[in-house]
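Q: Got a minute? One more chain.
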Amino acid sequence: MTRPLRVLLVSGEYPPMEGGVADFTRLLGCAMAEQGAEVHVLTSTRARHGAPSAPPDCHAVGASWSWGPLYGTLRRLLREVRPDVVNVQYQTAAYGMHPAVNLLPSAFPRVPFVTTFHDLLVPYLFPKAGPVRRWANLALARGSRATIVTNAEDREALARCGLPRLEMIPIGSNIAPCLPPDYDRAAWRARWGAGAETLLVGYFGLINASKGVEELVEALDDLARRGYDARLLVVGGGAGASDPTNQRYLERVRALISERGLAERVAWTGYLPPEDASAALSAVDVCALPYRDGASFRRGSLMAALAHGLPIVTTHPRVRVPELAHGRTAWLVPPQDPAALAEGIARLADDAALARTLAAGAAELAHEFDWQRIAARTLEVLHGVTP
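A: Always. Here it is, folded:
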């Protein structure tokens, strides 16, 4: 093919919508464009279109992700844009729970589809629809000419499903280390009420039940009772754009903070531009990410913590992930165990040498998740399914 590969990315989220898949799609699209691809994005009407930092062309799906708006818009783009390949960025909650996106390859059998699964979860709103939704996920994967997963757990789940091609390509950090000019770490810590002797524990990302924020609040309470001058800095901490149940969980977390009398120990940054988010992350002593479903490379918050070279306390992965080595690249604790989480944070607070070892291991591991490398591997897959 002499001309650039023409790629249509389909994503239920896109900036300024908050969410990891939104950031992933933007960063992947930009990196692929830098490598010579012509990139278009089909996304929600709530997303930004034509921003300078985005791939060249964004297209709105219309009123919803249901059959008519999605299929009608895609037919138009197939005529006008004439993409060589369509890469669906699939996350269960991002398409309004509508199955139209799952059946795209069946509806357009001549179009080369590649699906990138960001999770294999059943919908949060309709748990009884789980079996149907699992079938729909499998239909999307089997109808695609190649399937990309971002982590070992999802690869294991799909490995026995008879897919034409299955690849694992990790995500990168949506927040690159990029400190503001004249960055003063002590001054940034002071913004959040942390002095030189304060144990400032960081949490990064949106709030939802799978991330174990309630356990983190309980661990903070434990540390305070043990005499640590501990504070929690929630960097970001919104409910996101795709899943309305996140807002209810956020309210539960805030209620627990109030119930435990910890309001003065918890600071919320709200949304921050990338440079300020990087500054806030760089100000913490320990990053705690107590995922209830175990640490995974599909988690953008974990990728950000690694990229910033932070000492990380997180939960044991569900499947073997050799790169997450206990005591070398992260301190691993059991999921849903606030006491173990508090003990892990205290261990790093009390052992500066261990904290430095974990920080160095995290920074080294982060090199594996460079966006140019991710884009190159993705383009290799996309080229492989085009005529």
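A: Residues 20-34 form the longest helix (15 residues).
Q: Perfect, thanks.
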